[in-house]
Specification:
The chain has helices at 5-17, 38-41, 94-101, 104-107, 110-135, 138-144, 156-161, and strands at 23-30, 58-63, 69-75, 80-86, 150-155. It is of the alpha+beta class. Strands 2-3-4-1-5 form a five-stranded mixed β-sheet. The site of zinc ion (ZN) has 3 residues, from strand 4.
Amino acid sequence: MSLSIPAFVEMLHELQASLPNDRLATIRVHADDDRLSWTELGSCDTRQLPALPVGQDRDCRWSLTNGAGLHAHHHRALRVYDFHLDWPDPIQKPGEHVLDATYLAEGAGVGGIIGAVVGGLVAGEEGALLGLLIGGGSGALAGTLTPRRRQYVVSLDQAMGRTNISPTWGLAPG
Ligand SMILES: [Zn+2]
């Protein structure tokens, strides 16, 4: 059975909806698992937006049609991709993503937040981090690097067993 990307995204969405706010729904897919439509997914986005380090070797990001982002952590040694949804899509709204995904707001002073937002408007997520370093103190930096949600990882088999899938979202073009 082949799993379309919209159906896969819907599974992630439903899993996330079933979890408390401090957990990040994550579906682990082995690189050899051809149930997932890898060709539909296409290549890993080459834009190197910074990502929270959780041991991944590289990050792959795709924009979705509803304003969310699909994000995979590739763990080379394990030969797995850990997928989750980011809201809002960090490719389109990097500054907002930093605020949503981390404890930046709680950790930062006003200068750090303003610096991050202005930097984000100017130069994307890297600009946000640069602005943060300029405007904020060490408390802000520590907040930035602390993920707001702990990953809740299920296998593709577990994810497919717990939902009836009605895909409503797709990959955005480009
Ligand atoms: Zn992410």
